[in-house]
């Protein structure tokens, strides 16, 4: 049998081995790669041996791929550990208040409602309009002239006679005055955290369940923890 035919049959054998290995696993491990490399060495043409540079390149490529795989595994483990730590930390928020982007909050007996306005630019006058659960206008919280940035405010839940309004869900609207015009601005209000959950989606986010709402809020959207 000529060397050319021998090379041809040897090549077929190698291809068959490769096909068998592919059926067993879609990923080539270190042991499988070394076996394939040894097989190539054993079956190479002695009159035309494979260049050492090619073997080195193959080893370097495999080493690089193995390093990336190990790195991905390490990063995945770190991400899982970080999520667990975040979930544990977030669990301490249960029973506390956080400020999220919304236009209403619950007034509890003997307590106040805190909020933060995100003012994009300076304004001659900033105020918050307060509305009762039935939509009745109750008055304004005047914050005066303010520069751009975050502005904290608090509503004590008292009327002009110092009497407490009944408990319930009150609405708020924040405005900034520019050139005599009132422009609505983003506002964050305090809400009670009832429970914490880990989102099963791709992001694996920490989600907060808030009182009076069926829609959980991602922890990353919390503006202030009261």
From TrEMBL:
Gene3D superfamilies: 2.30.30.910, 2.60.40.4070. GO terms for biological process: bacterial-type flagellum organization. Residues 108-179 form the FlgD/Vpr Ig-like domain. Residues 86-223 form the FlgD Tudor-like domain. The keyword Metal-binding does not apply. Keywords: Bacterial flagellum biogenesis, Cell projection, Cilium, Flagellum. It holds the Pfam family FlgD_ig. InterPro entries: FlgD, FlgD/Vpr_Ig-like, FLgD_Tudor. The keyword Protein biosynthesis does not apply. Required for flagellar hook formation. May act as a scaffolding protein. Belongs to the FlgD family. This is Basal-body rod modification protein FlgD.
């Amino acid at each position: 049998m000529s060397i050319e035919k021998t090379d041809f049959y040897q090549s077929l054998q190698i291809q068959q081995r490769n096909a068998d290995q592919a059926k067993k696993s879609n990923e080539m491990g270190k042991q499988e790669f070394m076996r394939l490399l040894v097989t190539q060495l054993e079956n190479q043409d002695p009159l035309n041996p494979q260049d050492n540079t090619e073997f080195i390149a193959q080893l370097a490529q495999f080493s690089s791929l193995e390093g990336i795989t190990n790195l991905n595994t390490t990063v995945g483990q770190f991400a899982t550990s970080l999520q667990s730590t975040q979930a544990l930390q977030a669990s301490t928020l249960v029973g506390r208040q956080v400020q999220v982007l919304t236009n209403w909050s619950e007034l509890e007996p003997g307590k106040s409602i805190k909020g933060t306005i995100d003012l994009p630019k300076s304004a001659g006058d900033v105020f918050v309009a307060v509305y009762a659960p039935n939509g009745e206008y109750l008055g304004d919280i005047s914050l005066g002239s303010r520069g751009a940035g975050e502005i904290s405010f608090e509503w004590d839940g008292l009327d002009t006679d110092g009497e407490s309004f009944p408990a319930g869900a009150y609405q708020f609207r924040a405005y900034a005055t520019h050139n005599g015009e009132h422009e609505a601005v983003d506002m964050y209000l305090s809400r009670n955290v009832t429970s914490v959950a880990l989102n099963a989606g791709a992001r694996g986010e920490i989600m907060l369940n808030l009182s009076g709402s069926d829609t959980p809020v991602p922890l990353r959207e919390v503006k202030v923890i009261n």
